[in-house]
Predict the structure.
Amino acid sequence: MDSFIISQGIHFPCEIKNFEGDYYYKPDQFFTMNHTEIQNPLDQIKRSDTLLRQVFQKKKYSITIKSNVFFVNSAFTLYQAPLEKPILYPTQLTRYFEELNARSSILNDNHYKLADELVKEHKPSSPYTRVPPYTYENLKKGLICGSCYSYEILPGENVLICNTCGRQEKVEDAILRSVRELQLLFPDIKITTNLVFEWCKVIGSKKQIRRVLKKNYTKIGNRHCTYYI
Ligand SMILES: [Zn+2]
């Protein structure tokens, strides 16, 4: 849960997603257009609803909640989504908040108490997810071996070989692994051919990287400014 709107009567937990590009829905699953399954945000609100209800029950609050997933990026499209799902699309947000603001809502002490309780219950992210600050610029570039994490990778046309442990990996697999690394380290970074080229260092041909990206990701933008999602 990213936000929680307190109002008179019903409260509105919000899961906010900044997905960009085209996606499609199949019963209980979300996919990108190249058929990669992504975490279903509707599952996330289901889980957080259950947790919230448990908290409220423990505190003996009798509260009605209505959760929604908010897709806030105006370049987001979701195909095949059923009407009844608690989803708000970018084009609906203004109206949603206008309607919400138009409802008369007088907040009393209980509402403020509820807000305090929620803040107290809010668990900061696990200490294990805390990592030292880093930037793209200050990280060492170069593909590392998936087994022994050595940077000593010998380039080949189709297969890369680790000079330390001898592990072989298809160039395509190595490129995709690097893209996943980049996405994990920098969730907001735009995956471009040049970026992956610089990040891997050992792949000699940008053409090869472009081909792998094209095949596995969705291309966004025009000739002068292309990235992949
Ligand atoms: Zn190795």
